Amino acid sequence: MRVSVNLTWIAPGRVGGSEEYLVRQLLGLAEPSGVEIVATRSFHVAHPELAERFDTVESPIDRDNRALRIVNEHTWMAARTRRADLVHHGGGTAPLVGRRPVVLTIHDLQYLSLPGYFSAARRHYLERIVPRSVRDAAVVAVPSEFVRASVVDAFGADPGRVVVVPHGIPHHALPDPDAIAEARARWGVADRPYVLYPAISHPHKHHEVLIGMLDHLDDGTALVLVGGTGRGETGLVTAIGRSRARDRVVRTGRVSHADRDALLAGADALVFPSEYEGFGAPLVEAMALGVPVVAFGHPAIREVVGDAGVIVETSSGDPSVGEAWAEAVVEARRRRRELIGRGRERRTLFTTATSGAALDDAYRLAIEIGATP
Question: What are the C-alpha distances in Å from 245 to residues 36, 224, 332, 350?
Answer without folding.
Answer: 51, 13, 21, 36
